[in-house]
Structures are given as structure tokens and as C-alpha cells.
Amino acid sequence: MNMNANMHKMKMDATMHNRINGKKRRHNGTKRLRYTALLMAALLSMTFGPAAYAAPPYDHIPESCSEETWNRMQDDLIEWDEIGDLVQYYNPTYTSAFDTAQGSVIDLEGSYSSFLRDMYDVMDETDETVDELMENQKLLQGLDPDTTVNVVDGKPVTAAESLAQLEKGIQAAKAGRKEVAAGIRTASRSVKNASKTVERQLMPVKKAMTNALEGVFIGYEQLSIQREMVEKQVSLYETMYAMQQNLQQNGMATAYDVSAAKNDLEQAKKSLQDVDTGMETIRRSLGLQLGWDGNTLPEIGTLPEPDVAFVDTTNPDADKSAAIMHNSEVKATWKPDYSSSYGFELRDREENEVTGRLVAKMDSLYADMKQKKALYETAKTTLEKARLTRESAERRYELGMLGRSEYEAQQLSYLNYEASYRLAELNLFQSINTYKWAVDGVVTID
Q1: Does pTM top 0.70 for this prediction?
Q2: pLDDT digit string (tens) for 325-337?
Q3: CB-based contact 423:225 (threshold 8 Å)
């Protein structure tokens, strides 16, 4: 598009803007400078305070969210891989911070509209000035170059000298207009990117909230595993209690044996009740943090299997470099201190100290993954042996080669091994997840 076409488009855009607002542009230099200063100050110093923009209605899906993702979030099930999305659109802490920051963006857009009107005024004034200069230029070009056209401080000014001055004025006006147009484009890009800047500024908040709520989710899974085991224990103790009562009736068990079996059953039921209470508390807590009102409890999904191969395939050296680049505590030491050479030395010393502690933390987390993987593999092998022992006990019991009490003891033993395996699997998952978050910058160095 050539210059004339650009000028025409800018004028058309300004005219349309004025029609929409029902106002005629006013040429007011003081007003123009005030709005320009406001916009530039907003662009250079806009910050985003902490502290919900309300979740978008179902029929208004945010641009940053796909329809599939949005639809998944509308059910009553919290799944592991959607925690981050639920934080972004429903967590009260994050959404409040976003709402506050987005208010700054709205103010910025309002200032930009005023700025745009005033800049079009400047461009129109410049165009008018150039037109006048070019008209004068045409008049002077028709005169003899040596003709005196003006007298300045008693000295005659010829047509040729005036033409030279006019040409400088025309070029200066065009250059000024070009700078104004460039300023409009720069400001426009800044305003368009403002919303993206909000999300970028709040990314550490989202990461921290997601990481914390993933920990709560894992805690729920731990209780879920415990509940399965306790529920099976309740079933077994009910069987054993009934068996002791039958044995007592046949004179083969004492009142103490019956009382002990009853006590075991009651303790197991109490444990089951405690676990259920804990799980309900976590469901309510997760719900309040991820969009539920507290009256309705969400269902909690299951964790994916741990990525066992990751432990042996990840590159710890590359992970350390990534962790250093992403960690906010390390980044905070990068701010230069130009006051003195001592300031530089102090900054470097602090950076080395924080980086050293982070590297040590990454080594610790990596070693923890290795240990948890070894414990997981040991628990897996032990569970397989326990499974074979249990199957042997079942066959012997069916053949009458194993007493009821011994059979029940084998069942309880297997339950303990199964619980150990499930917890080892969960611990490995949690260790890998913690390590990955550390690589992404979310870790407490101390």
C-alpha cells in the first residue's frame, strides 16, 4: 500500500471513529499532550497487582481455551490433567489477580483510544501544513530564482532560497508524520499484546497454585489407596468376627477370642470412617479452589501411572540449566547494580550462592527419584511374590489343607503388600512430578 493510500486509510479510520462516537475532533495541543503522556506512562509502567475475574459463562469460551478443554471443565469431575486450566478460569486467587490486571488493560485501551484520536489530529495538521507548503512551493517555482520574495532582518531572500527552506520544511513535516504513524503502530501492538502480557505476568501465580493443588490431589489419592485397603480389612474382620462367634457356639473359641475379633472390626470401621472424613474434606477444599461452591462436592479422578522411563532418560545436567533459567529466586539476582564494583561483586556472590543451592536441590530431587524408582520396583517384585503366595493359599484352603485363620492371615498379608506397592507407585509419581516442577522453576530452594 503506497503513502497516499495509507494516509487515506488513516483518515477513513479516524472519520469512522468519530462517527461512531458522534463527536467532531478538536484541535487542542494541551489535551493531545496530556493523553499522549497518559498512554505512554501506562505502556511503560503498567503492573499487575495480586488478588476473581468471574469465570466466563458457558456460551462465552475464552480465546485462550479450546472448546474441547472448556467442555471438559463443565462436568463434576476433577481430572489430573485439567487442574491447570481449572486454576486459570476458576481459582479465586488467580482469577482475582487476573481481574485486577485486566482492569488495567481496559484503562489502557481507553487511554489508547484518546491517544489515537489525538494522533490523527496531529497527522491531519501535518498533512494540512505539507499541503500549504507545497502550494507555496508551486508559486515560487514559477518565479525567477533571483527574485526577491521576502526581507528578513533587512536582508533580501530570493525565490531560490525560499524554495530551499520550503523543501526542508516539507521533508521535516513528512518525517514528523512518519514518526507519529510509527508511534501509533507501536502503541497499537502494545495494547493488543496487553492481555497476553497479563497471562505472562501471572504465569508464576498459576504455576504455584497448580503445583499446590496437585499436591492436594495426590493427598486424596493416598487416602483413596488407604480406603481401599481399610475397606477390605473391614470385610475380612467381619468374616473373622462371624467365624469366632460360630466357633464359640461350638465350644471352639473363648469369649476373649470373640471380643478381640469384634474389637479389630470396630477399629477397622473407625479407620474407614476417619478416611472418609478426610477424603470429604479434600474434595470440598479442591472444589472451593477450582470453581465449586462448597455445597456440591466434585468427584476426584485417578492419577496417571508414573512415567518410570523418565527417571532413566532425563538429562540431569540439562535439567539443572533449565531450572536455573526458570527459577524466580535465581532471576532476582540477575538485576544489575551499577553503583559500584562492590555492587557487582555482591550481586555475583548472591547469584552463585542461590544457584549453588538450587543445583544441590536438583541433585537431591534427582536422587530421590532414583530411590523412589528402586523402592517401586522392589515393591512390585514383592507384590508379585505375595500374589503367588495368596493364590497358593487359596488353592490349599479350597482343598482343606489350610485352616480358616491361616487363610485370612494370608489375605491380610497380601493386602499389606498391595498397599505398600500402591504407595510406592504413588511416591514415585509424586517424586517425578516434583522434579519436573523444579525444572520449570517451581521449587523451594531452602
Answers
A1: no
A2: 998 888 888 776 5
A3: yes
